[in-house]
Design a protein that fits this description.
By secondary structure, the chain is mainly beta. It is 10% helix and 28% strand.
């Protein structure tokens, strides 16, 4: 009986922990000196653990880096004019290798809100602000 109780406590403590970051998967730190206040008409719509990016512009963005909340980033395939793409928020990492907490059915803590999203052009390194559409649950 004691062994079962101890095993249950150990399982609960370890199963509910957020895994530590993986330095091998860490991204670059956020380029604060490249931040701009303007945005372009590209919408970011959150749907649970995923976001949909809708490029309403006539501009192509070849292999941009997506920045979320000025902390988490991920390399995207080319975002062409008029394209829509779906991204899993769990694929985004910060400079310590920690993942974006996108939530989900088995998560015990609240998902991280999506506040700000930006694209970084690999050629100019300039950031472009995106329009985050508020999604209330």
């Amino acid at each position: 009986m004691k062994l079962t109780f101890l095993f249950s406590i150990f399982f609960l403590v370890t199963a509910c922990q957020n895994p530590a970051g993986n330095p091998e998967l860490a991204s670059q730190p956020y380029p604060m000196n490249m931040h701009v206040a303007q945005s372009v008409p590209i919408q970011v719509i959150r749907n649970g653990e995923h976001i949909k990016i809708v490029n309403s512009t006539a501009d192509d963005y070849p292999t941009p880096t997506l920045w979320v909340n000025q902390r988490f980033s991920g390399q995207l395939p080319s975002l062409l004019a008029g394209d829509t793409m779906r991204i899993n928020l769990w694929s985004l990492r910060d400079s310590f290798g920690e993942r974006f907490n996108a939530g989900g059915i088995w998560r015990t803590d609240e998902p991280t809100p999506l506040i700000i999203a930006e694209l970084q052009n690999p050629e100019s390194a300039q950031l472009v602000g995106l329009i985050v559409v508020d999604q209330k649950d």
